[in-house]
Amino acid sequence: MTRSIGIPRPDCGARHAEARARGQALDPLGARRGAGLTEPNGEETQMGDHAANFHKSLPHDANGAVHRPSYCAMVAALTGQDAGALETLPVGRNRTAAGTETDPPRYTATVPLGFRKPTSPMTGHVFDTQGADAGALAISASPALGSDEVAAEMAELYVMALCRDATFADIAQGAAPANLGAPVGALGGMSWFDGSFPPTTEAERRRFESRGLLNSASDLFRGSTPGSKTGPWLSQFMLIGNTNTGFTFQRPNGTPAPGNSAQPSFPGIRSNISIEDGFILYGTQVIDQRSIVAIPGRDYMTNWAAWLDFQNGVDLNNFDIFMHHRRYLTTPRDIATYVHHDALYQAYLNACLIILADGGNFPKAPGLPGTRRRRSGVQSEGPPGVRPVSAGASTSSERFRSSIPGEHIRATGLGNPVPCSDRFGSRANRPHRRSVSRVP
Fold this sequence. Notes:
Largest sheet: 2 strands, antiparallel
Number of strands: 2
Shape: globular
Helix content: 25-40%
Radius of gyration: 26 Å
Strand order of the largest sheet: 1-2
Strand content: under 5%
Number of helices: 15
């Protein structure tokens, strides 16, 4: 007599063998991708002071140039996977603002703030065991600092910064800020935005065509992917919620329970919610789409000293001042605050939850378990299997970005030297200084 009326096939040893065989069969598929080759653009070696590369948190001189031995030591530690060498770099607790070449002073801090450490510097060496490894992916070389492309991008970022406290609706209509018309018109006259730019490489052509032309203020916050140049700039996945109005809700006395009002001041404690209420269903809990936002008018890194402290790694975290009430994301500053504090995969998970709970607007593809007449999908191709994927994709992309050698300087690093380029004599002759002359 057996202990069960049915035994899975294969089971135990047979299943172990088949699982191993399936894994081995997938290996050639992964190897078929080949090795991704991300080509540096050459500026790391062409520009002796590494002005085109990322070196935030390392020591810089008063002109903003990175301490070259420290930069080279960082590159050697990262490329050689030398965790011990990373601990000796002049960053984090190895700094005290002593005022030396490798330990510059704080320029703006009125209290003895600490120094930031590099964030996950060895991430690029982590291997992926699911999907494509970061080393199997690649991107084209970054545009040179003296290029029309970088000049156009930086000019556009400056104009976008003028809009940081205007609502997206006012920006699209050209109603705010009041002085937006002239700079948008100037941007439209740059070759990168008026369609006259002649790409010289295939990668440059793809970037040029994906960005599209800039004809009005409504184009400022356009995306570069298909479909992202039309409609509201702010994704509706950042605003809407789910609906559970098909359920039955009652008061303790048995009478029907009212729903929420979709007004900014509504209490939001009622269980009967609709899509306009901005609540995402998360089991029996909800995620409120209203965010904590920074107060308008409080700006940072608006002078050379503040920017230099930022580059030198002074820990300026937790100095934000927030508004006293939460609201829907309304302005570019709101979005900046969101991405400053979000959990990395937060927006993707929220969008996933909205889609999974709304089968009417987001029907499942035929053939998936949830579409079959006599079975539904849960762990296998169902919601519990989909949710982790939305989170995993974001961490995989971060590992890929962290694996790029000679990482290009970011806009925050380049932003202040551009308008201050005339302050340093011969330093203004560098290619990234000359790019400013291309901005109308």
